[in-house]
Design brief:
Length: 438
C-alpha cells in the first residue's frame, strides 16, 4: 500500500508575535516519474495510479523537471518503487522516462490558518482554537475566549495573512452596549479602517463597523422576514440600524418607515437608502423606539406611499414611460396603513411592546385599521428547549402587551448566540383590544 505523506507543519517554538514565518518550512522527499509533456495528463489521471499520485489541496502533483524544463515530473506518494502495484509499475516503465528523487518544499504560505494555529498554540488550546470569523466587508470579527487572549495578536496576524479579502482583524471586548447596540473592539491586525461596504440580499450597505450594530450572521433572518412580506405591504422597522430589513423590503416593493435611535446608524441608513435608490419607498427617522411606535401609524395616513405597480424598473425606463403617458400606479390606491412591524433589538425589544397599548385608539386610526398589523419581535431566551422558550417568551410578551396574543402566533429559532442564550423571533397579529383600548 502507498504511504500517505505528512504535510502537517512543524511544531513552532519561536516568538509568538510577530511570528518567525521562516520557521515554517518542511522538506518532503518523494519519488517522481519523469514524463514527456504529451503523456503527462494520461499518466497523472490513469486509474492505475489513483492511489499513488500525490493529491493534496494547494499541492500540484505535476511539476517541471529541474533537469529539463521541457519535461514534467508526476509526484508519487511512495518512498520506494516496490510499493507500486505490478500494473502501475508496468505503466510507468512503459510510458515514463524514468524514476527520479524529488523534494517537495513547503513554507508558511502552504498551510491554512488552522494548521498554523495548531503548530503555535499550546497543546491544551489546539482543540478549541478559533477556526473562522464573521466577515463584514474587509473586516474579520473575532470573539476570542479568555484563554486565547494572550495569543490574540498572533491569531489576528494569521487570519490576516490567510484571507486576502480581509485587511482588518478585530476582537470583541465586551457585550453589546445597551442603548446603541455597538460593542467595543480592539484592533488585532491590519489597518484601523472600520468603514466598510458590505453586500447582502442584492443590496450594498456602507457603515462604520465600530459605531453601528451589524451582525453578518443574521443575513438569513433578514431574508426570512422580507419573504414574509408582500410587495404591496408597508413595513415599520422600529430598530432599523443601517437598513438590513428596510432596504431589501423596499427593493421588493414595500413602503418602509425605518427608525433608529443611534445617530450614526441613522446617518448610514440615509446614505444606504440613497445609494440603493429606494428613496421613494423608505422614510428614515432617528427617534426613541417607543416614541416611534406611538406615532408611526399616523404617518402613512398623512403621507401615503404610492400604490405598488409591479417590480421596480430602471430610472431611464421610468422616464420614458412617463413621457406623455399615464403610469399604472396612477390608478392604484395609495398605501396608507402599516401591515407589518419588525423589532430587531433582541435584548430589550419585548420591553417596548407596551407602547402598542392604545396606539390605534384615536377615531381616525380606529376607523382606518380594520385589520391589525403583524408584529415580528426578536428576543433572547435562556431556555434550551424550544417549547419552554416559547412559553417563556409568550409570558413576557403578554406581560408587556397586557394581553396574550392569540392570532397568527408563531415562534422561529434564529440562532444560538452562546451556551444558555438562544435568539428567537416571535410573530403575532397585534391584538385589537391592545391597540384600541390599551
Amino acid at each position: 500500500m502507498p504511504r500517505s505523506i505528512d504535510v502537517s507543519p512543524p511544531r513552532y517554538n519561536g516568538a509568538i508575535h510577530p511570528l518567525d514565518k521562516s520557521a515554517f518550512h518542511k522538506d518532503i522527499p518523494v519519488i517522481a516519474i519523469r514524463v514527456l509533456p504529451a503523456k503527462t495528463a494520461s499518466i497523472a489521471k490513469s486509474p492505475l495510479l489513483k492511489n499513488y499520485v500525490v493529491r493534496f489541496p494547494k499541492l500540484s502533483p505535476i511539476v517541471r523537471d529541474p533537469s529539463n524544463q521541457e519535461n514534467r515530473l508526476v509526484l508519487l506518494d511512495i518512498s520506494d518503487k516496490a510499493e507500486l502495484s505490478p500494473e502501475a509499475s508496468e505503466l510507468l516503465e512503459r510510458d515514463g522516462e524514468g524514476f527520479v528523487d524529488y523534494t517537495i518544499k513547503l513554507d508558511y504560505n502552504f498551510w491554512s490558518a488552522s494548521d498554523i494555529l495548531g503548530a503555535v498554540l499550546p497543546e491544551e488550546l489546539i482543540e478549541g482554537a478559533p477556526v473562522g470569523f464573521a466577515a463584514t466587508g474587509h473586516i474579520a470579527h473575532l470573539n476570542l475566549n479568555d484563554e486565547y487572549l494572550p495569543y490574540k495578536y498572533m491569531i489576528g496576524e494569521v487570519f490576516l495573512d490567510k484571507n486576502h479579502s480581509i485587511s482588518t482583524v478585530v476582537n470583541k471586548l465586551h457585550n453589546i452596549e445597551t442603548q446603541f447596540r455597538v460593542f467595543q473592539m480592539e484592533l488585532l491586525a491590519g489597518k484601523p479602517d472600520y468603514v466598510v461596504t458590505h453586500s447582502e440580499s442584492n443590496c450594498r450597505f456602507t457603515f462604520d463597523f465600530s459605531k453601528v450594530y451589524w451582525n453578518s450572521r443574521l443575513h438569513t433572518e433578514h431574508e426570512r422576514i422580507v419573504k414574509l412580506l408582500s410587495p404591496d405591504d408597508v413595513l415599520a422597522d422600529v430598530f432599523a440600524g443601517v437598513g438590513p430589513f428596510a432596504i431589501p423590503a423596499a427593493k421588493y416593493g414595500c413602503g418602509v418607515l425605518a427608525n433608529d435611535l443611534n445617530p450614526n446608524s441613522y446617518q448610514y441608513l440615509v446614505q444606504n437608502i440613497m445609494e440603493n435608490e429606494v428613496s421613494d419607498l423608505v422614510r428614515a427617522t432617528c427617534e426613541d423606539g417607543r416614541d416611534f411606535i406611538r406615532d408611526v401609524f399616523r404617518r402613512p395616513i398623512k403621507k401615503p406611499f404610492p400604490g405598488y405597480s409591479g417590480p421596480r424598473i430602471s430610472k431611464n425606463r421610468a422616464r420614458k414611460e412617463r413621457k406623455g403617458a399615464e403610469t399604472a400606479s396612477d390608478h392604484i390606491p395609495p398605501r396608507d396603513q402599516i401591515t407589518h412591524l419588525v423589532m430587531n433589538l433582541p435584548n430589550t425589544a419585548i420591553e417596548f411592546l407596551d407602547a402598542f397599548r392604545g396606539v390605534l385608539a384615536a377615531p381616525e386610526l380606529r376607523e382606518k385599521y380594520t385589520k391589525m398589523p403583524m408584529v415580528h419581535c426578536h428576543c433572547f431566551s435562556r431556555e434550551a428547549e424550544e417549547e419552554k422558550a416559547g412559553a417563556d417568551i409568550l409570558e413576557r410578551v403578554a406581560l408587556k402587551l397586557g394581553r396574550r396574543p392569540a392570532n397568527d402566533v408563531s415562534l422561529f429559532h434564529v440562532r444560538s448566540v452562546a451556551p444558555g442564550k438562544e435568539m428567537y423571533c416571535i410573530s403575532f397579529r397585534l391584538p385589537r383590544e391592545v391597540a384600541l383600548d390599551g
